[in-house]
Structure formats: C-alpha cells, structure tokens
Specification:
Layout (H helix, E strand, L loop, with lengths): L1 H5 L1 H19 L6 H19 L4 H4 L2 H8 L5 H5 L5 H18 L2 H13 L3 H18 L2 H21 L7 H21 L6 H14 L5 H27 L8 H14 L4 H24 L8 H14 L1 E6 L2 E4 L11 H19 L2 H10 L6 H15 L5 H18 L4 H12 L10 H7 L6 H35 L1
Antiparallel strand pairs: 1-2
Helix pairs in contact: 2-3, 5-17, 7-10, 7-16, 8-10, 8-14, 9-10, 9-11, 9-13, 10-11, 10-22, 11-13, 11-22, 12-20, 12-21, 13-23, 15-16, 18-20, 19-21, 19-23, 20-21, 21-23
Length: 487
C-alpha cells in the first residue's frame, strides 16, 4: 500500500498510456484507422484527467501535439478549438467576476442573499437551486452560471467568516458550486431556449419534417421533469452525499447585519461595476428581442466581451499615482482561471476530432442495431448513451449528429421521431461528471472548491437519476402530450 502511495504519479501516467496503446492495438470497437487513433487519444486524455496524472489544463494541450503527430487533424485545425467562441464567453464572464470581487461588491450581494435566506446551509443551497434553475429556463445555461458564479463564491467567503463548530464548510462550498452548474443544466431543459441542444433539435425537426415543436408543448413535458430533477439535486447533494450541518444561528444573523452596516453605502466603483453587470445580464436576457430589430446581431459570447471591455474603459472616479484608475486593470487578470480556458479548448478539440473521424456516426449506427429490441429498452439505451457521451463531447455537436440518425431509426420503426429525439436531447444536457461535459461544469470547476473525484461521484449519481427520470417521463408523459397536440 505504501509503495502505491509513493508511486501514485507514475502509476497514473502509465495507466493512461497502457490503456491508450491497448485500445489502439486491439481496436475493441472495430473502428476505422483514423477513428481508432482519435479514440486512443481520447482514452489517454480522459484517464489522465480522472487520475490527475498531470494538471487538467496541461492534459488539455495534448491535442495540439498528438493530433498533428498522428495525422488526426492539422495543427491549424486543432488550434481553432482553443479560440472557440464559448471560450471568449468564459473569458468575459471571468473578468466581470474579477471586477465584482475586486471592489467587494460580491460581499455586499452575498450578505444580502444570506440575510434573506437565513444562515442555514441547506436553505442557502435551496435558494440558489431555485434561482439558478428559474433563470436558466429563459437564459442560456452558460450565461446563468456566469451570473450566479461570483455571487456564490462570495456567499462561501461570508459563511467561512462565521463558520460554526462541528460543521462541514468544505461540503457546503462543494455543493453550492455543483448545484449552480447542475441547476443551470437542468433548468435549461425546461424550455426550448434554455440550452443550445434544445434549439438545435427543434430546428432539425422543423427542417426535416416541417413540424414546429410548440414552446408550450415542450414545457408541458420538460418543466415538470426539470422541477423533479432540481428537487432530486437538492436531496442528493445537500441532504445525502455532502451534508454541511450548518444550522441557522442568531449570532450569525447578527454578524451578517453588522457586516452589512460596516460596508456603508455603495462606493462609486461598486456602483459602476453593478451597472455594467446589470447591463451585461440585461443584454443576455433581451438579446433575442434586440436581434429581431435587425439593427445588429448579438450572442452570449459577444455580450460577455462587451461587459469585460466596459470594465477596462470605465474610470472609478479616483486617481492612483496621478493616473485615472479604471474599474479593471489588465494586471487584475493574473488572478483569472486561465487554465479552465485551456481545459475547455482541449475538450472542444477532442470532440471535434471524434466527430470528424466518424465516431459519432458509428455510435448512431450502433444504436440502430438495437432496433430489434422493444421500444422502452431502445429509449433507455438512447438516454444512457447520450448522457455519457456528452461527458466528453460537445452536447450541441452530439445533438446535430445524432438527430438525423435517430430520425431515420424512428421512421424505420414507425415511431414518432420526437419519442427518440427529445430524450436524447434532454440527456445531452444532463452531463454532470466531467468539467468539460457542459460549459457550466467547467465554470464552477474553476472555483477550486471542487475536486474531480467529488464531481465524478456526485455526477455519476445525478446521471443515474437523470437516466431514470428522463426515460420514464418520455415513455409515459411525452406520448400523452403528443396525443393531445395531434388531435
């Protein structure tokens, strides 16, 4: 046992290499040569990510070396993934979070949140689940996480200042971070506009069949499902797996009240950061309405960068060393989670390569091989494959590739394509185990409050619950809604 502990790093590195080489030599999935090489690299990266053999952002750089080396993709093609538009969404969001933290606005917001929810750990977590889940129904899940992330970090800081004896503050920090990501993903399932995979699938159905999935019909099926999943999220993480035992305390309440008083009035810098944050959030909320005016076209990524640029261009009203001080200086970005940008870039590069060499299409063909089993087993299989695929694949790319495959399968079996497509789409947004599974997962992982082993453990349980609930809802509720709609 002692030897294993001393050589843990060596074992982790070797295990990744051995599994990767073995997958390439034996080709257990009977893939084409290019696909086999891409899968071997994927196994190496995933093994090193899980075992933490190397820092996760360092592992994310492997595609830049291995893809050109093994002729999976050129360096020019691979490097494009590291400048994917969603990475600039992260960058802008992180910069907004830095400014909020720099001027202590996060502490003020957090103190007021805790004052209203009470100082019980469970009540704070429940409040964040409800708020995040509701916002994510109308905003993209990534934008919602960006908005809630700095606020949650400040709540954790406030709670640590008045930590109670016998409590598990680490559990509280872990759960609060996880529920922001998971509630954003789950809330996004409830409406068509809540997450990009929903939009991609509805667009495909309209283009192929000329049938428009109505906003309200989607909500009839998916909103109750999202509410049940959010309730399960609260019970599983806060009550069962990671209880914090933080109880409401009159002393803590008095401390919160005194801290709010000691902060005094909003400073000029705080006001300006708050205005920029509100403008950015408002643009995220109203961008679809603004785009309909046809004056310009905004997306979440552009809005995040607009917010960041405003921070660098807005003076605080004070001078430092006879120079006008801005709300955010470039040196402040030294505190930013640059590694997460690399991590997500590596995840996108890996997903792109697997899609390019046809692994996604082969998964679809493999699913088609189950057409001879009964419909419920097929539905369950689709949900299982979709949810675990999305842990390492772009969920939007997954939906785009699998939608036509499942539509053809549904047509061959004389099933409504929605019966197979909707569960696949919902499951693609439920990835909870890996940081690169969805953008919200990557954002909260950057906080430093989450260990990969804890995310894997919590995510695996939530994946199992999601598989059961999505399958049952789409088997029992979806046909009833379609029967009413088709009348």
């Amino acid at each position: 046992m002692e030897w294993f502990k001393k050589n843990q790093y060596l074992l982790a590195v070797l295990s990744g290499i051995i599994l990767s080489v073995a997958a390439y030599i034996f080709n257990p999935f009977h893939l084409s040569a290019d696909a086999n090489k891409a899968v071997a690299v994927a196994i190496l990266m995933i093994t090193w990510w899980i075992s933490e053999a190397l820092p996760m952002p360092a592992v994310a750089l492997l595609p830049l070396v291995l893809f050109p080396l093994f002729k999976i993709a050129s360096i020019e093609e691979t490097s494009k993934a590291y400048s994917n538009p969603v990475i600039f969404l992260f960058m802008g969001g992180f910069m907004i979070g830095l400014a909020i933290e720099k001027w202590n606005l996060h502490k003020r917001i957090a103190l007021h949140i805790v004052k209203r929810t009470g100082t019980s750990g469970d009540r704070i977590i429940l409040g964040f689940i409800i708020a995040t889940g509701f916002l994510s129904m109308w905003l993209s899940n990534t934008a919602t996480t960006m908005m809630m992330f700095p606020i949650a970090l400040s709540v954790i800081a406030v709670m640590k200042e008045h930590e109670q004896p016998g409590t598990k503050m680490n559990n509280f920090s872990l759960v609060l971070m996880l529920v922001i990501a998971y509630a954003s993903n789950i809330g996004g399932m409830a409406t068509i506009i809540g997450t990009p995979p929903n939009v991609a699938f509805v667009g495909f159905i309209e283009k192929k069949y000329g049938y428009t999935v109505q906003f309200f019909d989607w909500m009839i099926v998916c909103t109750p499902l999202a509410i049940i999943l959010l309730a399960a999220l609260y019970w599983v993480l806060a009550k069962w797996m990671f209880p914090s035992h933080i109880k409401n305390s009159s002393d803590a309440n008095d401390f919160i009240t005194n801290e709010i008083k000691s902060l005094g009035k909003l400073s000029a810098a705080e006001k300006r950061v708050l205005v920029i944050f509100v403008i950015t959030a408002s643009l995220w909320i109203t961008k679809d309405l603004l785009n309909k005016l046809n004056w310009f076209k905004l997306d979440d990524n552009m809005i995040a960068i607009i917010g960041a640029l405003m921070l660098f261009a807005t003076p605080t009203g004070e001078k430092k060393e006879n120079k006008t001080q801005m709300v955010l200086d470039w040196k402040d970005t030294s505190k930013m989670a640059w590694g997460i940008l690399l991590l997500f870039g590596g995840g996108i590069a890996l997903a792109n390569s697997l899609e390019k060499v046809g692994v996604m299409a082969q998964v679809g063909n493999w699913l088609a091989g189950f057409s001879n089993i009964n419909a419920f087993a097929l539905l369950l299989m689709i949900v299982i494959v979709s949810i675990f695929m999305s842990e390492v694949m772009s969920n939007v790319a997954q939906v785009i590739v699998l939608s036509p495959v499942l539509a053809a399968l549904a047509d061959a079996l004389h099933l409504d394509p929605l019966m197979l497509g909707i569960p696949m789409t919902l499951a693609a947004s439920a990835a909870a185990m890996m940081p690169m599974g969805t953008p919200p997962n990557a954002i909260v992982f950057s906080s430093g409050h989450i260990k990969l082993k804890d995310m894997l453990k919590a995510g695996f349980v939530m994946n199992l619950i999601s598989i059961v609930l999505i399958t049952l809802f789409c088997w029992y509720v979806l046909p009833m809604v379609m029967a009413v709609v088709m009348k």
